[in-house]
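Slide 14.
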Amino acid sequence: MSLDKEATGISPARKTFGILLGVLLAVISFMAAVGEVFVFSNPQLTQSVGLTSVGQARLNSTMRDIAAEELEQSDPSLALVGRGALLENPLNATGITAIAMQRYGSEDYDDALRLGLLSDRINRRDLGGQLLLFQTNLQMSDFDQAIKHLDTAVRTAGDRQPLLFGLIAQALRFEEFRAALAPKFNEGRDWTAPFLIHAVDQSSEADAVQKVLLKLEPDVLQELTPRIAGRTLSKLIAQGQYPEALSLLEALPTKDTRLLAKFGFASETVDPEIGAFAWTAGAQENVLAELNLEPGQAEDVPLAKIDIGAGIEELALSRLMALPAGSYQIDRRETSENGGSLLWRIRCADGQSFPDIWTSETGETVVIPASCPFQMVQVYGRNTRASEPAAVIINAVELTRS
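Slide 15: predicted structure.
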């Protein structure tokens, strides 16, 4: 047991969940101040939920304090706010949530849970109530129930869903949370793909997303592959997490890792679902790589054409490979237009200096050392003309073991 847990009785993961929820509730409270969650600018709406503006302000303040764990003891006035709301409207989920928050603040988690579940029976779309149930179940170490209420909160959050996504993504770094979340994804949730996309694109949690994906059933993973696999693999590769990327590729039901030793251009080596393991165009506007891999194309149709702006040398194509150690011969057939040329480089993908293993200026023999399990292959377009564009057509490229 860690010293942190011995001293507090709360695991580091659960404590962090509380902090994450604290951020979320603080933002929701801010949204409440402009009338989006609890506070209503229309007096008739305010009356209909049975909370006065003063009572709502007390609720918002206490939500922040509870979430940030700043209350040494419960704020009893919050219970009065909740009771007043219930006197006005006995079926008032917000009022019951207010009392539940008061019980939570006094560490009476059993009572908070009982009241939270009552609020849930009245109105499952009460976001504050669902998040309170999420947090209370976390405190009681019931991760399955916590995820159940988080699932309800996400599905009913409407335009606040991205806010929840950002915080759930941070919680993904904890194994307990991932283990509880994966079964929900396996059951099928329409927010699974949007959330995972958000987690990969808008945060630094690609490695946590990879761990979630590895927990999914093969059919679920296959269904998600077109939307999430490529971007997750590319992010992992960009972060230098090559073994993690390889593990995910190995888990994809319809992918074959033998493509990582296939050097040339083919349908499987330009597949966007394998991310940066596939040939990927560079980001420079002055170099445009166009791959021509239409099914049934004639043998004399070029594999690729690279258009190069005047007077530049920029990256046109790249991909990560995993060639076995050994000696290889490379055979390239290219056609230059208007003086364009290509520089090919194979570099050791060590995540740091990326030293060259081979360049097209050093001959046709490529030696992959045993100390380099992953290689970054790059193709640069060159145009020495200062005022005219150029191009290079790649007619064939093969790598064979010596």
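Speaker note: The domain at 3-247 is CATH 1.25.40 (Serine Threonine Protein Phosphatase 5, Tetratricopeptide repeat).
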